[in-house]
Amino acid sequence: MLGAPLILAVALGYVGLLFAVAFWADRRAERGRSAIANPYVYALSLAVYCTAWTFYGSVGRAAAEGPAFLPTYLGPTLACALGFTVMRKMIRIGKAHRTTSIADFLSSRYGKSAALAAAVTCFALLGLIPYIALQLKAVADGFDILSHAPLIIMPRHLEAKPVLEDTSFHVAWLLALFAMLFGTRKLEATERHEGIVAAVAFESIVKLAAFVAVGLFTLAAFGGPAALFGRAAAEPRLQEILMAAHPRAEPLGWSLEILLSFLAFLCLPRQFHVAVVENVSEEHLGKALWLFPLYLWAINLFVLPIAVAGSLQFPGGVDADTFGLTLPLALQREGLALVAFVGGMSAATAMVIVESVALATMISNDLLLPLWLRLPGRPLSLERDPRRGILVLRRACIVLVLASGYAYYRAIGQMHSLVALGQISFVAVAQFAPALLGGLFWKHATRRGALAGLVGGFAVWFYTLIVPSLVDAGLLGEAIVAYGPAGWGWLRPGHLMGLEGLNPIAHAFFWSLLVNLGLFTGLSLLGAPPAAERAQAELFVDAFAFPARPEAMPLWRGTARVRDLRLLLERFLGRERTEEALGEFARHHGLRPGPGRPADPALVTFAEGLLAGAVGSASARVMVASVVQEKPLRAEELLEILEENRAAISYSRELEKLAEELRAANRRLEELDRLKDEFIATVTHELRTPLAAVRSIAESLQAHPRMPEERRRSLTAVVVKESERLGRLVDQVLDFQRLESGKSLGQPLPLDLREVWREAAAAMRPMLEERGIRLALEEPETLPPVFGDRDRLLQVALNLLSNALKFCPDSGGRIDVRLERRGDEITGVVSDNGPGIPAEDREAVFEAFYQVRRRGPRGRTAGTGLGLAIVRRILEHHGGWIRAASGPEGGAAFHFGLPLRPPPPPPPALTP
Amino acid sequence: MEPNAGRNDRRWVVFLLGCLLVNPPVLSLFAQPAGILEIPLLYAYLYLAWAGLIALIALVSRESPPDRGGGP
Fold first, then answer.
1. Taking CB atoms and an 8 Å cutoff, what residues of chain B touch A243?
2. Average pLDDT over residues A41-57
């Protein structure tokens, strides 16, 4: 038995837990160990997108219309696909201009317009109050359903409770307290609210876990997905949702809903708040862009199973919105129902907290403060400590937002399903999209266009969605919906211009966006904006081409005193923060502004930016203007400054690139130098070893004149052999050096490569026979001539053959040589049946002295270690190539090619 | 600049591909009275296509080194 007291205790206990999480995160942040500075918490905080609408409403919609609940989540997924284009730019600009909200962002883009900020704030407030009401309703409904368990009673059949006995009232004031405590600690709204972000991320985990728990339980209770859908398939009334009627019957509505959620995801004040204002680092975006859609995917995975199972379990009388709670109750799992209730609460409360902080910041910064600044007879200097005043104002706004939401829920919230309310809000905030996206990518977008589009779109929203709901509530006559105002049928709110075939949301979205876009683009094209607005347009659209901070590029001229600016800052930021900020400014700009001195434009811009972070860009503009004498820059001057900065930055980027290239060239030179030294060291070592042998033998012969004849002869033989080796080595080193400088090639003459190889084979014959190795030379009947130095190409053949000979086994060794023509070159393969070359060494064998360094299989007497290096140099000088591979029988195979045309002049030597 | 431009192109391709996959008319191809393990075809398709899209987003989002600062 659950019972109301237990449920209330759980609900309040859960909110208490949120306080604890937020408190913990704030404490950690104070100690400099941020709990939220990672992409995972960032992605989870974006999941504030999933509200009670997701938790309960999706199931309701799935039970009625099949897959129609999905476009709401596909839109944000597509927005994430474009995240690097859109969201990264928003974050970059938001940080540069210390943006506090989406209203501030739009106002700042369109010339720091206070009118636009106020319009966005009002419309956001009107559009989102129902959405907040929906969250409170979800909490209250959940409580009502659980408290009547084991009976299943729909809340709409219950008497409305007095306010003080209503759970959602208590939840509402607790959330207001939470938002005030953790959302308005400092005046600077750009300061991160670590406690709130941590709590929201925590709630995202709770709601996902709760929903997945209910989903898994449902699947288990119905015997797995196959059994569940098998039962549903036999049920005629479920055919509609299983057959997925929605996208087929309403293809346009489906696509419009995807577009709607795509835009709403970018424009919702709470999404803007977590994605831009609370963003710790741009670098967190990359991971969040796929983690967040993955979250959406996971939380939607069990919507359909729960909807189908609920429809099977309850043939009627139970709202599908409540299946997440009623299904566990009907199957006698009260504990699970309680878990689901907590999950639904976490979805609702996270949204309410962030939305109310975002809206309260907007109301105080973008609506009331600009009004207050314009009041006659209230000069700034009269206010002793405006900081306290503004903070109290912001707290009052939080209470106002939550009170409005609660009042709305008490008044008409009972009549709408969760999804309908949420989607009405989506259409409202989507009206910000043309101004937002246009402002980010279109320089000619103007304030007048943005404002007109916003007002026009919002009017259509009101007419097509709110008027019908007022009719439903009995506040307006039904005639307007049925026959249009004054009987004009083409103005019916649900069918503007007689448009049929779209659901009310898609219909309203289509018309409002059309009017909005039309006014926005039309008016933007008609008139050029004033200079200051054009400058902001440049700064936003080309955000990545300008300095990260506006003060690095002051767009201001006039006279101001440091003292005035300092006083202004101190009043709004406090003495301590002002000192710190000015110190930071002095460090970056290398000067400490004295109080009486005139302030330079950079300091004015810096001060305005700092203030904007506290009170919004429109108010900051007015405040700074009140203490300085500005001489407005003309449009050409502004654009000139911008152009200079843009050029300077692209120039400095080019310089950086050039410097990097120089560094690379230098590294290469150093490497060459090192190789040269190494080469000399190796050569010296190689020369010294046989010399030392010869010398020690000579000494021993000198010291023992009566050495037996036999011993003497064998020692002399060693001397002869070592001297020969020494001579060979010197020859090869000289050869190699000549090849390096490209001097040693004779005039290229046409020659037959087959003859060259036959000659080489003949020369090697005695040594091959001595070791019993079979050499097979396979050549085509005709072969066009190549151009080259005959002696050098013979050297190639000899070196390759003696290299193969070296590695052949003593018995049964064989070497295969095959020449053929391939396209416009002649290729050849020399393969042996020796041990082969490990894959990682196949390039290194062509380095000088490679085998000496690596100790070849037959020890160091086998060769000089220059043979293959010389082969490669010769072939390259002829415009050809060589590489090592694995042979057919596991041995080594050397593939080489020579062009049929005469080679180009030899390339400059790069390696010794 | 050039490698960045290539990355950006890939993101746009993923976005457009995503738009194509989750909208009619491609979607309508799967609105059939058939199922995979009894799960209706359209749902199975939507969740799979969605997951694929997320994987692609992960692929094109990961490779971008952060662009440090707008200026010197």
1. 31, 33, 40
2. 93
Say how many C-beta atoms besides its own lie within 10 A of residue A393's C-beta. Answer: 18
Is residue A69 within 8 Å of residue A61, measured between CB atoms? yes
Residue in chain A nearest B13 by alpha carbon: A81
From the CA of B62, how many Å to the nearest CA of chain A? 6
Give one DSSP letter per residue of A604-625, joined into a string. HHHHHHHHHHHH-HHHHHHHHH
Check residue A579 and give its pLDDT.
86
User: Is B62 part of the contact surface with chain A (CB cutoff 8 Å)?
Assistant: yes
SS3 state of residue A253: helix
The alpha-carbon gap from A371 to the nearest alpha carbon of chain B, in Å, equals 35
Q: Is B65 on the interface with A (CB under 8 A)?
A: no
Inform me whether the pLDDT recorded for A271 exceeds 90. yes
User: So what's the ipTM on this one?
Assistant: 0.88
pLDDT at B67 over 50: no
Domains of chain A: 4-84+108-365+394-414 (1.20.1740), 432-533 (no CATH), 547-633 (no CATH), 659-738 (1.10.287.130), 744-899 (3.30.565.10)
pLDDT value at position A852?
44
Per-residue pLDDT at A440: 94
Comparing alpha-carbon positions, the chain B residue that sits nearest to A588 is: B72
Which residues of chain A make contact with B61, given a CB cutoff of 8 A? Answer: 83-84, 285-287, 289-290
The shortest CB-CB distance from B33 to any of A82, A243, A301 is to A243
Q: Which residues of A touch B30 (CB under 8 A)?
A: 244
| B66 confidence band (pLDDT: 50, 70, 90) | very low
DSSP B40: E
Check pLDDT > 70 for residue A853.
Answer: no
Per-residue pLDDT of A50-96, as tens digits, reads 999 888 989 988 888 888 899 999 999 999 999 888 999 999 999 88
> Which pLDDT band, with edges at 50, 70 and 90, does A563 fall under?
confident
Q: Which amino acid is at A496?
A: L
A720 CA to centre of own chain: 71
Among the partner-chain residues B24, B62, B67, the one whose CB lies closest to the CB of A255 is B24
B54:A225 CB<8 A = no
- Residue A851 pLDDT more than 60? no
* Radius of gyration of chain A measured on its C-alpha atoms: 41
* Tokens standing for residue A444: 């000619």
A457, A451 Cβ separation under 8 angstroms: no
Asked if the Cβ–Cβ distance from A247 to B31 is below 8 Å, we say: yes
Distance in angstroms (rounded) separating the CA atoms of residues A307 and A213: 15
Q: For position A413, what pLDDT does the model report?
A: 57
Put simply, the chain B residues between 24 and 53 with a CB less than 8 A from any chain A CB are 24-25, 27-28, 30-31, 33, 35, 37-40, 42-43, 46-47, 50-51, 53
- Tokens describing residue A695: 């010398």
Whether residues A74 and B15 touch (CB distance < 8 A) is answered with: no
Res. A721 pLDDT band, cuts 50 70 90? confident
Among A69, A80, A280, the residue to mutate for chain B (most B Cβ within 10 A): A80
As beta bridge partners, residue A883 has A895
**Strands of A236-385, DSSP E:** none
User: Are the beta carbons of B54 and A293 separated by less than 8 Å?
Assistant: yes
Among A360, A14, A28, residue whose Cα is nearest residue A197: A28
Considering CB atoms only, which of A227, A242, A544 is closest to B67?
A544
User: Measured in whole angstroms, how far is the alpha carbon of residue A872 from the centre of its chain?
Assistant: 46
Instruction: Answer whether A301 sits within 8 Å of B47, measured CB to CB.
Output: yes
The total of other beta-carbon atoms located within 10 Å of residue A871's CB is 22
Q: Secondary structure of chain A: what % helix, strand, coil (to 5)?
A: 70, 5, 25
Tell me which residue of A679, A655, A847, A617 sits closest to A111, measured CA to CA: A617
- Helix residue ranges per DSSP H, A741-829: 753-770, 790-807
